[in-house]
Amino acid sequence: MLALRKLLRLSHREALLLMQAAVLLPMVRLALKFITVSRLKDFGSRSLNDPRSPQLPLQTTARMVRIAAHRGFYNFKCLDQSLVLHWLLRRQGVDARIVFGARRGEEQMELHAWVEVDGVAIGEDDRVNHGFSPFEKLTPSISN
Fold first, then answer.
1. Which residues, at least 6 apart from 103, have a Cβ–Cβ distance to it below 8 Å?
2. 117: exposed, middle or buried (C-beta count within 10 Å: 0-12, 13-18, 19+)?
3. Predicted confidence (pLDDT) per residue in 65-123, tens digit
4. Closest CA to 31 of 40, 43, 22
5. Shortest CA distance to 115 belongs to which of 127, 123, 105, 103?
6. How far is the C-alpha of 89 from the C-alpha of 55, rounded, in Å?
7. Cα angle vertex 21, ends 10, 130, to 5°?
8. Which residue of 31, 36, 114, 128 sits 20 to 30 Å from the alpha carbon of 45, by its own alpha carbon?
């Protein structure tokens, strides 16, 4: 009952975004079994500046994706959420990018994916800024 009350408090645009995320997340999870991450990421990049999608605050968009990811039948991973958030932000005309990073865990290497706009992680807690190094920073630069 509490979840229904929260749902009814969403604006029309927020509810639409939540429904889009709820549909896209399982589609992305399934597509990842057949298509590379790079191709899925590129698919979302094609939709920059779609005038049909009204822009919401970046954190609101991220919150709707997070709610859809954690309130369904399946708990979606950071990669699924990042691909969907990236796609939804690009549809709103936001120049977002997916960042992949790693950090050394206690027992093994930990991997994470997140979305950044102008170098700021969207919808992430401080753990992105504390310990995960983007892959581009991990690879040595090659000079001619």
1. 109, 110, 112, 131, 132, 133
2. middle
3. 999 998 877 789 889 999 999 999 988 888 888 988 888 878 888 888 899 999 888 98
4. 40
5. 123
6. 8
7. 95
8. 128
